[in-house]
User: Which sequence fits this backbone?
């Protein structure tokens, strides 16, 4: 019995090594719009990958800073530079960049974020199961003065995970690797909802494909003031409400319990009134009273600068 177990382990190891030896090409997409502040660190984290068979699709969204100069200082044949014909929203730029990829797998890293050096080496072997369409991992939230906090304390779901991510969406785009042939749309990211397009893509992709997860944090997601602001938070709320109605989410996910999405919609429906009529905001709050929403929104009304980071609801 012991010999059989050893034999099974050897076969599994051989399969994993076979995939690694074949080393499929991974296309890494980096969209850049004036990203010079942290760009060096992001690029170094790609070049330091222990998995070496990658290409970087660097999509310059008409930057006016030193981003292009910084990129071109990294002399590596695996880096492919593209300058946009016109500036677009992030996810339209991502769709355009995907069209330039040559790899079997696609990954994403933003200019202000960082990968751990073993990220791709740990993720690519997971695709030896041909049913796996997407592999993701835990990550760190990286704050000012390099303070970090692990994003999720629980074991991340795997397999058919639609139910799980409807209740608690835990897929950071910078940790994602996707099997390219499973992307069957011309524009996989719906850029009409640019601030929640990752969320929309993840839910939609989970309906058709199996996910694999790694509980170890393999990336660092930087939190900074340029990223989270009141205007962007309210715009996200408006997009979420429009997405919920226009895409008929209740019908699309009619086989699932979407009560958590409905609660999010109720909160965002209030939040989008924050910069408009305070009378209308409080009327809607009391009409469908929820104590948690009441506290959050009052904090944002009274102390916006203090609570903007704490109460932003990143879908």
Assistant:
């Amino acid at each position: 019995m012991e010999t059989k177990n050893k034999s099974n382990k050897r076969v599994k190891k051989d399969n994993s090594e076979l995939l690694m030896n074949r080393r499929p090409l991974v296309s890494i997409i980096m969209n850049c719009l004036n990203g010079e502040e942290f760009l060096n660190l992001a690029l170094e984290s790609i070049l330091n990958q222990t998995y070496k068979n990658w290409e970087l699709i660097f999509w310059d969204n008409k930057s006016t800073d030193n981003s292009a100069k910084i990129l071109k200082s990294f002399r590596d044949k695996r880096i492919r530079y593209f300058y946009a014909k016109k500036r677009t929203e992030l996810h339209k730029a991502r769709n355009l960049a995907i069209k330039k990829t040559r790899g079997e797998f696609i990954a994403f890293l933003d200019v202000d974020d960082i990968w751990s050096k073993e990220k791709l080496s740990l993720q690519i072997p997971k695709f030896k199961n041909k049913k796996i369409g997407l592999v993701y991992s835990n990550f760190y939230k990286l704050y000012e003065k390099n303070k970090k906090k692990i994003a999720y304390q629980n074991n991340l779901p795997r397999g058919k995970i639609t139910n799980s991510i409807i209740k608690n969406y835990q897929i950071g785009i910078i940790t994602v690797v996707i099997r390219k042939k499973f992307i069957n749309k011309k524009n996989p990211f719906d850029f009409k909802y640019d601030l929640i397009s990752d969320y929309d893509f993840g839910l939609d992709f989970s309906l058709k494909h199996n996910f694999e997860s790694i509980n170890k944090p393999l990336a660092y997601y930087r939190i900074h003031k340029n990223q989270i602001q009141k205007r962007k938070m309210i715009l996200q709320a408006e997009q979420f409400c429009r997405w919920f109605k226009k895409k008929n989410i209740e019908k699309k996910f009619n086989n699932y319990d979407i009560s958590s999405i409905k609660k999010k919609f109720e909160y965002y429906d209030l939040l989008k009134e924050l910069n408009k009529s305070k009378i209308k905001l409080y009327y809607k709050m009391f009409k469908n009273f929820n104590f948690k929403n009441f506290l959050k929104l009052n904090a944002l009304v009274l102390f916006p600068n203090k609570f903007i980071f704490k109460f932003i609801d990143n879908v």
Q: What stands out?
A: Confidence is low (pLDDT under 50) at residues 14-20, 311-315. The radius of gyration is 21 Å. The first helix runs from residue 2 to 22. The chain has two domains: 2-222, 230-311.
